[in-house]
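haha ok so turns out i had the wrong file open the whole time. this is the CORRECT one, sorry everyone. sequence first:
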Amino acid sequence: MKKIKYLYLTLLVAILGCQDAIDIQQPGRITLDVAFRTVDDLSRGLNGAYLSYDLVNEIAMAAAYTDEVGPGVASGGQNFTTGFIFELNPLSSASSTFWAGGYLQLNRLNRLLEGAAGITPTPEEEDEYNDIVGQALALRAYSHFQLLSYYSTDYTNDEALGVPIQIAVPSIADQPLRNTNGEVYQQIEDDLSRAFSLIQDDVSATRTFVSKDFVLALRARVAAYRGDYSTALPIAQDLLNRYPLATTASFPDIWLDESNDEVIFKLERVLNGPFDGQGSNGAVASGGWVGNVFAFVNASAGGGAFFEFGRTLFNLFEEGDIRRTAYLAPDAVVSPDYENTPDYLNDDVLPVAKYPGSQGQFLMNDHKVFRSAEMLLIIAEAYADSNNLNGPTNSVAATLKQLRDARFGTAQGLDAFNSQQDAFNAILNERRVELAFEGHRWKDVKRLGARANQNIVREPLDCDQFNACELSNSDFRMTIPLPVIEFEGNPGLREQQNPGYTN
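then structure:
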């Protein structure tokens, strides 16, 4: 009984002293007015915000939870109890990784923007100041869209629940609920409009800083996800005109970080940088070198590949296609009769070589966020949506031929489609090949699978042991659950959990 009384007394003291504890102003505490006093401070803050952005988690998610990869020759069981069995729940690392990462980005950007509001630049600093604010706004739009793309059930429904909008530094007492997709999209467009007016016209040759073209590329992607192709088409066409597709000679150099052909924006990775290191070997919560999503040592048959090409994906790559040369390890072992080989794992070895490494470091490469090839494929979607399927110009067939001509280096045949469904299926297959291992596949099946009559389908030899060979495009796991850790501080969100999940 005495112990219980002492416990009550302790709790009472803690509760009464709680507010005092929260209100303590520690000596030396760095507030916004101290952290951001000059335009140079803002520049350093923006560089810090860039460090929040990384595609490794997205690439790992789209690989392991779809039909992009199967177990590799050096598999140690990576993703056997998660992606390969399509296991997603509010405790999954995928659930918390994208949520925590996205709101960390927004927090940093909002602190920067609030700091910027308290600074008056000199006339000489005004262009740089505007450019910093514009980049921050564009990144804030990108972060909101990334969050929505994982946690919204239906990109095309403005009334569906999106994610909580965050455009201010939150207090410890804030408990925001989910905004609708329409509200999130409006915030994204508001930020992009302001960003476009502020970002300076000069574009870095390295493509590693947000530019006006980053804003346009994001607008095109957002519009395509919404099904607003009248907006997406002219933007995508403008970017494709100004960022022409790479030649077959230069295309492999993109993945060696030796060419910026058709790259609109990328995240740069350098030796001794914060992302130079081994990650968690294929886990969605991994980090480090992007090639480490697929292999332990290097992108070769002997490099410890624990993930390899899923066979249903590899079967779409044709001889003579430069993408096959660039994405597959040169010493791969391609079995001509893999379905009947006595030892599939060792007789059909297809290591992913899209991220072979750069600057002398195996598996470390820049992350290509926007490429003009994606813009071309958005154009194809727009033609399919408007039922412009066939013909030598302004059609799905003509647009896909343009991409294939560039990738084969010779004129390819012109397809003829019998229906919109056939056209969307061809587009989705071309996206599988062109954008393989860039983090798109899971979202692509979610948004286009129904129109293409296409699901996530694995080769039985890659998946029979998991009894998880297919995931329907309408399955509830095509949307990530809100993470259970968020409910502890924001219990109202528990009632807004995505369908199919229990908290």
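Residues 38-496 form a domain with the Serine Threonine Protein Phosphatase 5, Tetratricopeptide repeat fold (CATH 1.25.40.390).
again sry for the mixup
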